[in-house]
Amino acid sequence: MKATRDLIAGLVFSGIGLAALIIARNYPFGSTLNMGAGYFPVIVSTLILIFGIVLVIQEIIRGNGPAFGDIAWRPLLIITGAVIGFALLIDTAGLIPAVAFLVVAGWFADPARKWRHLPVQIAIGIAVPILIFRLGLNMPINLWAF
To answer: Is 104 exposed, middle or buried (0-12, 13-18, 19+ CB in 10 A)?
Structure first.
């Protein structure tokens, strides 16, 4: 059996899902109406684990996926840096600058990027978390820290 992209991805997803499930097992689960601290992590990690297992099984059955070859380092490093930058900016600068940085930095990872798409991506990237977390869930997220 050759190492294919789907097999490697399935193993990575399975490992992450299993690790998160092991970490979250000691948190109080609660119920659907009264969610505990472990409710969301257990559900999400279980879904990730199942997704990984399905990928591995499909690849074992099919066995004809693309080979695991060269890694696109530039997009990988840019996206990793964008996520780290977002994590550093969210508390110090606020949601709007952090999301704008994330979108702009991530935009550079796409070799087929177009300038005319960037403002729309920034606007949607900022609007969606505000609608979900600030308006929908009433979370006290700092929008602008300047």
So the answer is: middle
In which domain, by residue range, is 87 found?
Answer: 73-136
Amino acid at 32: T
Any domain includes 141:
no
> Which strand (E) or helix (H) includes residue 82?
helix 73-92
Q: For the whole model, what pTM was predicted?
A: 0.61
Residues 51 and 13 in one domain: yes
Q: Is residue 77 part of a domain?
A: yes
For 116, which DSSP code? G
pLDDT in tens, the chain (146 residues): 577 788 888 999 999 999 999 998 888 888 878 888 888 899 999 999 999 999 999 888 887 766 666 667 888 899 999 999 999 999 899 889 999 999 999 998 888 888 888 999 999 999 999 999 888 888 888 888 77
